[in-house]
Amino acid sequence: MKQKICILGLGYIGLPTAAMFATHGHEIIGVDVNEEVVHALNQGKIIIEEPYLDIMVQAAVTSENLTAATEPCQADVFIIAVPTPMEADKTANMKYVESATRSIVPYLEKGNIVILESTSPPGTVEELLVPILAESGLCIGEDVLVAHSPERVLPGKILMELVENNRIVGGINQRSCEAVRDLYRTFVKGEIFLTDAKTAEMCKLMENTYRDVNIALANELAKICEAMNISAWEVIELANKHPRVHLHQPGPGVGGHCLAIDPWFIIEKQPQLAQMIALGRQINDSMPRHVLERCKEILEPVEERKKVVVFGVTYKPDIDDMRESPIMEFIHLLEQEKDIDVVVVDPHVTHMPYLEKDMWKAVGNSHLIVLGVHHQVFAQIDFEHMKQEMKNPAILDTRDFWDRVTLEKLGFQYFLLGEKKEGSRL
Ligand SMILES: NC(=O)c1ccc[n+]([C@@H]2O[C@H](COP(=O)([O-])OP(=O)(O)OC[C@H]3O[C@@H](n4cnc5c(N)ncnc54)[C@H](O)[C@@H]3O)[C@@H](O)[C@H]2O)c1
Prior knowledge:
- 39% of the residues lie in helices and 14% in strands.
- By secondary structure, it is of the alpha/beta class.
- The protein has an 8-stranded mixed β-sheet with strand order 3-2-1-4-5-6-7-8, sandwiched between helices. A 5-stranded parallel β-sheet has the order 10-9-11-12-13, with helices on both faces.
- It is elongated, with a radius of gyration of 24 Å.
- The relative contact order is 0.09.
- Bound molecules: nicotinamide-adenine-dinucleotide.
- Nicotinamide-adenine-dinucleotide binds at residues 8-14, 31-34, 37, 81-84, 96, 99-100, 103, 117-119, 151, 153, 155, 257-258.
């Protein structure tokens, strides 16, 4: 049955969801407070980078199943996919969810479904959404069905994962669960599991916390191995030959809107109990400074003003998303060093301080290249040319991405996070 669905928040989650429902025959009104997003969408265009999303949005807009507006309207279903950023004190900023929920109250009618997709601290649906929706005078749970259905998609593969991933639906009652499950069945091919709202909220947070804590373990191992002259990468590779061990990879920190933030939403609720989760965050947050210390050590013998070129600043490879990127924090630390100049190379990023679009100009006369994010394009670099342009051909690879043997053969000094040769080799 064709439904009219109002989706609030047209970002990385809301827009692909809107396009997906629209191309599956539903009538979608996409709502965003950002006029630029609304204007672009009504012309069939998008302002975020996500493979194939532009094509799907264009098809949806052309079919007239997807239109955008800055205000909500009457609909059968309301889906809230607005940001849930973190405050400076590491608590969830729920003001976007709150204002989006308030904005639909005047349009609520008997028979409506309200779904929260935004990642939220456990208890949000019951304690924040339901009381606001009740201001409509309707009986929430009877007249209006409500559920949390968290997103698990991976940026870069959003359209595929929206369809293929298993999904959790946490309703305020059984009717809410079933109605929301039936709606997502429109396009979801994965399994859909039903639970209560608070459990669904905790599941989403714990999925990312699991990964964050495991990366923290790998980062701790990296530091230990550096101190003990062992290769963490070799340890991980060999330990993972055990059938029940799956150590994660170390790196310059953890970023993105999910892994670096979601654990805090659990800590916020149970600060006394969430001890390992908090320690994991602390270890991962210490990595940009650790990379800086490695740089300073490598550059110590250089007596002139030093030029460091950072390759890749997004929070993971092959995307344009810089949210919570640990490389940004690393750059921030680098710029505080009085005798270091910073230049950034990242083909996925259009504007940011220190960005140099001409790679050869960027590496010219530099003393150290730090690989921050292993974008695929960085696999094709002409290292021979790079060596000629650099003043001191040294590389610090934080991802075990470039090939040590090739680089050393070309005359580079190759340093790797998670392993350390005695002393500096510059
Ligand atoms: N991006 C991801 O990979 C991902 C994955 C899983 C879960 N999530 C969660 O999904 C939620 C949305 O994330 P995102 O990445 O799509 O955010 P985003 O910043 O890309 O997009 C959010 C959009 O909401 C709009 N907005 C803000 N307040 C609004 C309001 N009151 N009414 C209408 N629109 C409003 C903003 O202008 C913005 O365009 C967050 O809770 C996030 O944690 C994101």
